[in-house]
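Run log // design_07
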């Protein structure tokens, strides 16, 4: 069966997706409120969930003119949950991290590394979707290179923000930084973002292309590679 990529088919698909996105938005707002009810550290919670506060209105405002793929909306939702958990408990105290630490015999709570993995995974798909749909880059290898560069730039910017917070807040920034005494925390954070970006590109590019085709966008990446 061929996919209906006509304007009528696209409108019908968007209408069906809208109901799920409204539900996901409502769930995100409820989880955001729950995470902020009694966070371990209020300032840390505010800094951790700030990207969600910015992203939600942007997604709502651009839905009609630039709707994203279902894959990307789902990944953004999962990333938001990761951020809210980190904000509620602080990354060094998330129970899931303690479970993983005990399971693998690690020396520290690794939940912050999960957060940085998603900091690479989700922005990689966002960058790829924009680059493909706007035809900024052609060729699969060049696309991968540009996407990874964008992800590492985002990761480096976030580390600079953490550095600025440390300078401004002093010891009060410890919960936000979540280094847990690791002198190589910055480098390992960026490495996890790199792994996340590579995982997104290696394992999800073809599925992402199919989702883009359903939106009526034929990827020039495959054709040029």
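design_07 sequence
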């Amino acid at each position: 069966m061929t996919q209906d990529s006509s304007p009528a088919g696209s409108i019908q698909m968007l209408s069906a997706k809208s109901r799920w996105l409204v539900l996901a938005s409502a769930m995100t707002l409820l989880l955001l409120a729950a995470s902020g009810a009694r966070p371990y550290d209020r300032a840390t919670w505010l800094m951790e969930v700030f990207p969600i506060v910015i992203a939600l209105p942007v997604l709502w405002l651009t839905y009609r003119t630039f709707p994203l793929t279902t894959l990307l909306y789902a990944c953004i939702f999962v990333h938001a949950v990761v951020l809210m958990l980190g904000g509620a408990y602080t990354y060094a105290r998330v129970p899931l991290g303690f479970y993983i630490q005990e399971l693998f015999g690690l020396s520290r709570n690794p939940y912050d590394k999960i957060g940085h993995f998603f900091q690479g995974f989700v922005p990689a798909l966002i960058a790829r979707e924009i680059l493909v749909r706007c035809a900024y880059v052609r060729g699969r290898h060049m696309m991968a290179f540009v996407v990874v560069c964008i992800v590492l730039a985002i990761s480096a910017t976030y580390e600079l923000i953490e550095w600025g917070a440390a300078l401004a807040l002093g010891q009060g920034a410890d919960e936000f930084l979540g280094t847990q005494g690791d002198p190589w925390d910055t480098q390992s954070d960026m490495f996890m973002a790199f792994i996340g970006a590579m995982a997104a590109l290696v394992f999800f590019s073809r599925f992402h292309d199919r989702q883009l085709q359903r939106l009526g966008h034929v990827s020039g990446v495959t054709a040029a590679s």
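The chain has one domain: 7-224.
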